[in-house]
Amino acid sequence: MPYAVRLHDERSAFLSLEALVWRDGPVCPHCEERSRIGRLSGLSSSIGTWKCYACRKPFTVRHGTIFQNSHVPLHVWLQGLYLLMSSRQRLSSQKLGQILGISVRTAWHLKGKITAGMAASEEQAEPLPREARPPIEIRAPLPEATSPPQPGQAVYRARYERFLGALDNLASPCSDSAFLDALHRLLSRPSGSLPQSHSSTGEQQLQLSLFDEPEQPLERCQQNDARL
Ligand SMILES: [Zn+2]
Could you report how far apart the first and last alpha carbons of the chain are, in Å? Predict the structure, then answer.
């Protein structure tokens, strides 16, 4: 495998998602240009930004996915997805927010978008082919701190350590597979076609327990295990 999925900071999350989405190299989502594009790496550019020199527009791999137009960093989305899949979507918004270091409200929105995206892709779900499954490296030691420290490094490290700590209780042997299948399904459908199933009137339903959904059957997990 030429690459592995890593979630420990924003840069690694972008590189992982780019490798999954753009298997044949980056593509401009505005005009489909493949060659006259370049990564913007200046200090004023946010991580993961590319520029198309055919249509002059910037873009990121988040374009057209449920991760687009969100102030939540990509690595937080992906860690959240991993936690939700490991808990079979039972982890409460309160607990998810604590682990990811985001507000309960933001965690609730993140969870709602993931749940709605998964439901919307249900009928057309094709499992990710085995040959397309990259290894996930989430328990590998964090890279040594660089000097001078990169922006956000302490926040990334603290969040990742909470994430790993939570996985001690939540993760199972099928977590990687469930995460990759979920990500594949979420990326297979444009965000514009997702149903708006979580309206603001549902805010009162925030739960303060560890799990706020009844336990889901293990079927999906077992199917994944059988396939591996
Ligand atoms: Zn373009």
Answer: 16
Neighbouring C-alpha atoms within 13 Å toward the C-beta of 219 = 2
**Ligand 1 centre and the CA of 143: distance in Å?**
35
How many CA atoms are closer than 13 Å to the CA of 123, on its beta-carbon side?
2
- The CA 188 to ligand 1 mean position distance, Å, reads 21
189 CA to middle of ligand 1, Å?
Answer: 21
Cβ-based neighbours of 125, under 8 Å, separated by 6 or more: 185, 188
For residue 19, report the distance from its CA to the centre of ligand 1, in Å.
Answer: 19
pLDDT digits (tens, 9 = 90+) for 60-102: 999 999 999 899 999 999 999 999 999 988 899 999 999 999 9
Residue 197 CA to ligand 1 centre (angstroms) = 32
Structure confidence at residue 132 (pLDDT): 76
The pTM of the full predicted model, rounded to 2 decimals, is: 0.82
